[in-house]
């Protein structure tokens, strides 16, 4: 007789794949024994069971690399703990390059591995052929060897996690379908199943490819869609070496591993297809999908050329199974933004086996602590806009993630699907003037402006891309003349009501008792003194403020503010992002251009820095705030959409005698890095404290209303622990910085680049970087010593600075 379901639990986990079992295991191991895991069929029966089982420690970000590194540790110990062998073989991996750009990418990946102490070293073509004698070495330029990589058995690993969870007190129930997550008062309160209801304090959605549909029932967006994913297994191959490393040939779109005397080889498809667009069949369990040869023939031909033995070896298994892919290639991990105690771990893009153990631990740690214990901001469920959670968008966008898995991971790589969704009022006039657009949160944003007669497109490279000269000219215009930038897509949230000022005083670190017409840059902290966001706040009236956020964090900031409104507080939030077009006019000649068309006094005395005023440009009513993300004199001009093109045309005409130039996001990024201006999610996140960023000036601990996290801020500032953010500039003008390049003090890896660009005014690559001091070294002494940045395996001499590389006194902005 089946054991009856309990009526209550501390935590209910939905889904018995590797993620659900990992969360259960890590919760139970930490003493949370009242944990119930529910699986609709059998453990692993969704997508876990047919995974290829590759275990690679180096992933695309700091968080996912940490997950994978922990996963290897767990694989080495879980058999001793549970008696269940996870089938781990540490055979290593080799990634090969067949062109110079791929070799540059692999070398950069090896640089990144050094940050985590993961061994990764270059191999010549001859050395690769020696380790992988079945490979056709024609065209192979070299590759990267990672000895600690390998493979595991997905089912055995998941069963080991499940067994460990049970051993520590968790309960696991198979053949129980969750029909509904129950909620009350904005909180998850349990689940209703086909075998009864369980009341719970916490509900965790680890439902794999069902996670999206389950989340939709409660308005929780889980951005993933199942896509068809193929692999093949050969007949047994005589004398096949059992210790072959996993071989990855990204340009061929193929990976190979030895599998019990056979070769398993899988594909990163050049053309991917979404699966179950009308819903996943109720009966799905350990199912495979139809194998369509035409879908893989192009990649199969490349595979047979790379490993010629395949041309004379039979295929035992032609497999096609569903895998979940997200809209942006990132996990969804964390608490739902609009529903307390509802957590999600899903959409891991075919990296479940190598990342699942670590991701499950990270979520379990979050649940236990009540907050993330590491930086998981890239995976935040709140990054999702409402339109991105809809099936039509996900069906179009998610297959591209599969296609890009083995494609070149170019810096500034732009998606091609689901484009043109959100256009600013300046889209068409800027397109007519040569704008090449990128996409952020559906917004089409100019990246650079092509010269007349040139096609506005990106020719990707790890070297200087085709837009490099254009971006340099745009930077020069802002530094020496004047530039015009589309800022429309920045988030704009009105905070209104009789208690608006007191509310903002509580959630913001800076003093929000602003006079009407004043603007302030401020942080918002959490109770631990970490930075939840940085925003600009403008006071529009006695009971009206505008909070301005970066493009990709608008929803997250709105949710953060919403959570802090107290019962009975007269505070209303209103998103006005689409109500205004915004143009930034920046550069030493910005005042001259604006004075030619505005009907107000623009002198420094009449229109001060951090001030806001209403006036007219041409016939259009506008308001502008004197700010600049470029580090130069500038104004951010807000226009209603009906007048937007008119204002654009007036400014372009008035700016012509002053050499006004349109400026895109690539130039803006380099300008703000030169000036030391930060970007939340790149240069800081919620684990980082203001003193680490040099942002103490935004924190007013003595203001009348204490801000959230004040005591923690004061304590952390007094402790003074690093790492610290600094500016860095390469001495060699040739190499380029993007992000994640290791920063070295002598031979010691001291940190990494958080944001990189090429600074026109300094004539070299520049970056912001996190660096840790040596024992006995304080922040102020950091610039001392010999500094380097590791770029494609070479140590490039660099200068480190605790102040901005451009105009550290900020006199130009205030002039």
TrEMBL record:
Organism: Phaeobacter porticola
Residue ranges annotated for the FAD dependent oxidoreductase domain, each copy included: 11-366
Domain FAD dependent oxidoreductase central intervals: 370-423
Boundaries of every GCVT N-terminal domain copy: 427-703
A GO MF term: sarcosine dehydrogenase activity
Stated name of the protein: Sarcosine dehydrogenase
Record domain Aminomethyltransferase C-terminal: where: 726-806
EC number assigned by the record: 1.5.8.3
Family the entry assigns: Belongs to the GcvT family.
Pfam families linked: DAO, FAO_M, GCV_T, GCV_T_C
Gene3D superfamilies: Aminomethyltransferase beta-barrel domains, D-Amino Acid Oxidase, subunit A, domain 2, FAD/NAD(P)-binding domain, Probable tRNA modification gtpase trme, domain 1
Name of the top EC class for this enzyme: oxidoreductase
Keywords: Oxidoreductase
InterPro entries in the record: FAD-dep_OxRdtase, FAD/NAD-bd_sf, FAO_M, GcvT/YgfZ/DmdA, GcvT/YgfZ_C, GcvT_C, GCVT_N, TrmE/GcvT-like
């Amino acid at each position: 007789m089946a054991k009856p379901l309990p009526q209550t639990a501390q935590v209910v986990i939905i889904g018995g794949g590797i993620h659900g079992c990992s969360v259960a295991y890590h919760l139970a191991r930490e003493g949370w024994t009242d944990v119930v895991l529910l699986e609709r069929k059998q453990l692993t029966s969704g997508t876990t069971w047919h995974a290829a089982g590759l275990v690679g420690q180096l992933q695309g970000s700091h968080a996912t690399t940490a997950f994978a590194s922990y996963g290897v540790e767990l694989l080495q110990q879980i058999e001793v703990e549970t008696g269940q062998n996870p089938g781990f073989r540490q055979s290593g991996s080799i990634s090969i390059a067949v062109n110079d750009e791929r070799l540059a990418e692999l070398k950069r990946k090896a640089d990144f591995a050094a940050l985590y102490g993961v061994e990764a070293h270059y191999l010549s073509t001859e050395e690769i052929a020696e380790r992988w004698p079945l490979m056709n070495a024609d065209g192979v330029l070299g590759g990267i060897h990672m000895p600690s990589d390998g493979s595991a058995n997905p089912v055995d690993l998941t069963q080991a996690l499940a067994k460990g969870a049970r051993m520590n007190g968790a309960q696991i129930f198979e053949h129980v379908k969750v029909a509904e997550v129950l909620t009350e008062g904005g909180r998850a309160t349990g689940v209703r199943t086909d075998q009864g209801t369980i009341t719970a304090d916490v509900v965790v959605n680890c439902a794999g490819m069902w996670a999206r549909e389950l989340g939709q029932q409660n308005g929780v967006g889980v951005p993933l869609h199942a896509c068809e994913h193929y692999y093949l297994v050969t007949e047994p191959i005589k004398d096949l070496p059992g210790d072959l490393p996993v071989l990855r040939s990204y340009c061929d779109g193929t990976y190979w591993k030895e599998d019990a005397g056979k070769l398993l080889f899988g594909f990163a498809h050049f053309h991917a297809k979404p699966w179950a667009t009308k819903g996943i069949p109720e009966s799905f369990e350990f199912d495979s999908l139809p194998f369509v040869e035409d879908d893989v023939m192009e990649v199969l031909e490349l595979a047979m050329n790379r490993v010629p033995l395949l041309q004379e070896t039979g295929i035992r298994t032609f497999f096609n199974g569903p895998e979940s892919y997200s809209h942006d290639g990132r996990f969804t991990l964390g608490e739902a933004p609009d529903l307390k105690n509802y957590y999600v771990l899903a959409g891991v893009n075919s990296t479940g086996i190598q990342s699942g153990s670590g991701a499950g631990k990270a979520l379990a740690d979050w649940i236990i602590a009540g907050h993330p214990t590491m930086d998981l901001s890239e995976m935040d469920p709140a990054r999702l806009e409402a339109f991105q959670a809809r099936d039509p968008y996900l069906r179009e966008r998610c297959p591209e993630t599969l296609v890009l898995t083995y494609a070149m991971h170019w810096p500034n790589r732009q998606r091609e699907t689901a484009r043109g969704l959100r256009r600013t009022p300046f889209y068409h006039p800027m397109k007519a003037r040569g704008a090449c657009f990128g996409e952020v949160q559906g917004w089409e944003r100019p990246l650079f402006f092509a010269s007349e007669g040139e096609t506005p497109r990106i020719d990707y490279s790890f070297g200087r891309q085709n837009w490099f000269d254009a971006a340099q000219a745009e930077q020069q215009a802002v530094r020496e003349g004047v530039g015009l930038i589309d800022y429309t897509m920045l988030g704009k949230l009105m905070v209104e009501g009789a208690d608006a000022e007191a509310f903002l005083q509580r959630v913001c670190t800076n003093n929000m008792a602003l006079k009407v017409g004043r603007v302030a840059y401020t942080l918002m902290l959490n109770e631990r003194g970490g930075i939840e966001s940085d925003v600009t706040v403008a006071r529009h009236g006695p009971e009206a403020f505008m909070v301005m956020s970066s493009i990709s964090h608008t929803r997250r900031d709105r949710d953060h503010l919403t959570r802090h409104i107290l019962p009975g507080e007269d505070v209303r939030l209103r998103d006005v992002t689409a109500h205004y077009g915004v143009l930034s006019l920046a550069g030493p000649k910005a005042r001259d251009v604006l004075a030619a068309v505005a009907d107000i006094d623009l002198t420094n005395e009449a229109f001060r820095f951090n001030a806001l005023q209403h006036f007219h440009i041409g016939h259009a009513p506008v308001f502008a705030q004197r700010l600049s993300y470029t580090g130069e004199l500038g104004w951010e001009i807000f226009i209603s959409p009906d007048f937007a093109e008119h204002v654009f045309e007036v400014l372009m005409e008035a700016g012509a005698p002053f050499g006004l130039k349109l400026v895109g996001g690539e130039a803006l990024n380099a300008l703000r890095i030169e000036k030391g201006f930060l970007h939340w999610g790149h240069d800081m996140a919620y684990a980082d404290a203001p003193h680490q960023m040099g942002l103490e000036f935004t924190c007013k601990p003595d203001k009348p209303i204490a801000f959230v996290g004040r005591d923690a801020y004061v304590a952390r500032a007094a402790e003074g622990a690093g790492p610290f953010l600094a500016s860095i500039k390469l001495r060699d003008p040739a190499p380029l910085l993007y992000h994640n390049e290791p920063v070295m003090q002598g031979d010691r890896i001291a940190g990494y680049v958080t944001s990189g660009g090429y600074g026109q005014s300094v004539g070299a690559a520049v970056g912001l970087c996190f660096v840790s001091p040596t024992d006995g070294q304080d922040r102020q002494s950091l610039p001392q010593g010999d500094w380097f940045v590791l770029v494609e395996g070479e140590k490039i001499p660099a200068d480190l600075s605790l102040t901005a590389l451009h105009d550290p006194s900020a006199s130009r902005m205030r002039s």
